[in-house]
Amino acid sequence: MNAWVSQWLSVGQRIADLAARHDRNPGEVQLLAVSKTFPAEAVVAVARAGQRHFGENYIQEGVDKIAQVAHLAPDLAHELVWHCIGPIQSNKTRQVAAHFQWVHTVDRLKVAQRLSDQRPSHLPDLQVLIQVNMDGGDTKSGVAPQEALALAQAVAQLPRLKLRGIMSIPEPHDDPQRMQAIHEHTRDLLQRLQQAMPQLTLDVLSMGMSADLEPAIAAGSTWVRVGTAIFGSRT
Ligand SMILES: *Cc1c(COP(=O)(O)O)cnc(C)c1O
């Protein structure tokens, strides 16, 4: 068996074990395979094994890879769901709106407006998450927690976007309890947004990567975004 596929299988097993250990329903925690820097062949290998959702950080790389995958696996490509998980400059929104089905990194209204305006009319609404900077970390991306509600309310008005929840990338810590506490703050923020906007279904919490799967799942993550544990280390 291909190394990517066997690692993908172990990550899937690990997520199922962690979900059980933390009293989560197994189907509640989904795996987003982060294929950034890895070739289209890696995507096709795990897609053939059953993975459907893929995340890319760099817009041009993602758009090129989506086309390569369609070329390598025309039978499969239409079943794959592509998530943009990287920072989005205004001049990249058109490509994101045309090629991705999900965006995890909406952190300002201008970008959301452009994504809504530029979403091609033949495609379904773009599924979006607000990226929140929960710990004031160096990444700089993400809206401050106290500004998340105002942004979410504005994004929810945009016609071609469907707001589904929030995403965060806290600074890594060796102490899993500290990571879990940060992830729990993110979960609590989602609950507050849901209470403030009861007309929406905010059911998505994108948090946790290879190094913090357990604290993220314990805190209620519904999408874990995993790269290195599946595809290996990035050079
Ligand atoms: C690269 C990346 C991941 C995956 O990180 P790993 O540590 O490789 O699992 C997840 N989320 C975002 C936003 C990333 O940029």
Structural notes for this entry:
The chain is α/β, with parallel strands linked by helices. The protein has a single domain (3-16, 36-231), classed as Alanine racemase (TIM Barrel), CATH 3.20.20. It contains nine helices and eight strands. Strands 7-6-5-4-3-2-1-8 form an eight-stranded parallel sheet. Helix 3 (59-72) links the parallel strand 2 (53-56) and strand 3 (81-84). Helix 1 (3-21) crosses helix 8, helix 2 (40-49) crosses helix 3 and helix 4 (93-99) crosses helix 5 (109-118). The chain is globular and about 50 Å long. The model has no long low-confidence stretch (mean pLDDT 96). Bound molecules: pyridoxal-5'-phosphate. The site of pyridoxal-5'-phosphate (PLP) has 13 residues, from strand 8 and helix 9.
Q: SSE layout and pairings?
A:
Blueprint: H1 3-21, E1 30-34, H2 40-49, E2 53-56, H3 59-72, E3 81-84, H4 93-99, E4 102-106, H5 109-118, E5 126-131, H6 148-156, E6 161-167, H7 176-196, E7 204-206, H8 213-219, E8 223-226, H9 228-231
Parallel strand pairs: 1-2, 1-8, 2-3, 3-4, 4-5, 5-6, 6-7
The protein binds pyridoxal-5'-phosphate (PLP).
